Amino acid sequence: MYEKDTLCVHSTRCPKPACGSITTPIFQAATFVHEGVGVEPEYSYSRLQNPTRAALEARVAELENGVDAIAFSSGMAAETALMNIFEASGHIIAGDDLYGGSLRLFRHISALAGLRFDFTDTTDPENVRKKLQPDTKAVYLETPSNPTMQVSDIAAVAQIAHSAGALLIVDNTFLSPLFQHPLELGADIVVHSGTKYLGGHNDALAGFLVTKTPELAEKLRFYAKTVGACLAPFDCFLLERGIKTLAVRLEKQAASAESIAHWLRRRPEVRKVYYIGFPDHPGFEVTKRQCSGFGGMLSLEVDTPETARKILREVKLFQYAESLGGVDSLITYPMLQTHADVPEEERLKRGINDRFLRISVGIENTADLIEDLRLAIEK
Predict the structure, then answer these.
(1) With 102 labelled, which of 75, 141, 171, 281 sits at a CA distance of 20 to 30 A?
(2) Contact present, 332 and 294 (Cβ < 8 Å)
(3) Does the annotation mark 196 as catalytic?
(4) The one catalytic residue among 68, 96, 97, 171
(5) Residue 339, helix vs strand vs coil
(6) CB atoms within 10 A of CB 344
(7) pLDDT in tens, 148-172
(8) In whole angstroms, what is the distance from residue 17 CA to residue 275 CA?
(9) Using CA atoms, how far apart are residues 110 and 116, in angstroms rounded to an integer?
(10) 184 burial level (CB within 10 Å; 0-12, 13-18, 19+)
(11) What span, in angstroms and rounded, lies between the C-alpha atoms of 375 and 373?
(12) Backbone angles phi, psi at 356, to 5 degrees
């Protein structure tokens, strides 16, 4: 078995390359010819499957050590499909520090369909155990969480979930298959917003569900082909191209994030830095045990709302935008962007206030990024 950085480039390739093409061709076709009556072709209609998508899915499945991966038109489309495989009367335990879009889906869409949700601090596995009910279908967590970088012990939560006959679902967007392997730690399904680190260039929306068993894959593929939230061929091409540089991008981003996190900690204007690579982070020992890197994400709380807004206004290399994981460094104001739909009381309880910023470190020169922040803070 090759290492992950090699697999990013040389993972499963298109099974029928055109004219010896190194890259997977873009099969921009909606429908395919049947060779004869009663002969079921491998590809018949692109809502079901497309050769470009098949190559991408095989690559992601191999990177995550899953039996299958299903590509969707966005991360939220993937999560919507996931929620639809559960019975309408089921119970789901979820982390209480999640991406705002996930909270919006669970509370305002999935709950209307009959699912019941309990949100808890999954950094303590016993909190999950206490929330178990006879009809608990799944435990859903992000680790690290978005945006306060909380770390959950995947193996410990998996054991608790499985003891109750429930699935464990892990959003692995922040660390990617390069730094964390939830399926190996006991997760049953891995979620990715492929828009982020897998794509890596802020130019394509995508989502993935990676499964541990063929049975789960069959359920999810049935939903995907029926609803049609599939990833288009050109976007599949962009995602596969992005994954080839995942290792070099993320290694650079992680190294820069570490330097920036330590620099921010020394600034008098910064009250707190949320970064999983600090030895005094509450989840540091778990991170060292279940991850091979700390990633390119961090958050911070500054001294005043004016400082936060000044940074957003004055940065030049960092761009004020609502995404993460790309080659460009981005800075986000969660209270107005990713978590705008979360009730204020709940946001404030988690520390997501008007002094809280989230940073996604890109691949620019580290010293230039630090200088950009310094100039913005001291403006």
Answers:
(1) 281
(2) no
(3) yes
(4) 171
(5) coil
(6) 11
(7) 999 999 999 999 999 999 999 999 9
(8) 43
(9) 8
(10) middle
(11) 6
(12) -100, 130
Q: Which of 4, 97, 99, 355 is catalytic?
A: 99
Phi, psi angle pair for 337, to nearest 5°: -125, -95
For residue 178, what are its two tokens?
A: 């390069």
Q: Residue 14 pLDDT more than 90?
A: no
Average pLDDT over residues 117-127: 97
Structure tokens that stand for 120 in this block: 């808890």
Q: Which of 82-91, 274-283, 354-363 has the lowest mean pLDDT?
A: 82-91
pLDDT tens for each residue of 294-320: 999 999 999 999 999 999 999 999 999
The answer on pLDDT for 118 being more than 60 is yes
Structure tokens at 302: 């500054």
Residue 17 has pLDDT above 60, yes or no: no
Residue 320 appears among annotated catalytic residues: no
CA–CA gap between residue 220 and residue 224 (Å, rounded): 6
Q: 9: which residues sit within 8 A by CB, 6+ positions away?
A: 244
CA distance 216 to 138: 13
Q: What is the DSSP letter of 33?
A: -
- Give tens-digit pLDDT for 270-295: 999 999 999 999 999 999 999 999 99
| 8 A C-beta contact, residue 69 and residue 208 | yes
Q: Which of 4, 53, 59, 196 is catalytic?
A: 196
The catalytically annotated residue of 47, 267, 272, 310 is: 47
Give yes or no for a contact between 270 and 264, defined as CB atoms under 8 angstroms apart: yes
Q: First-to-last CA distance in the chain?
A: 51
Percentage of residues of the chain with pLDDT beyond 90: 82
E strand map for 143-198: 167-171, 189-193
Whole-angstrom distance, CA of residue 221 vs CA of residue 199: 22
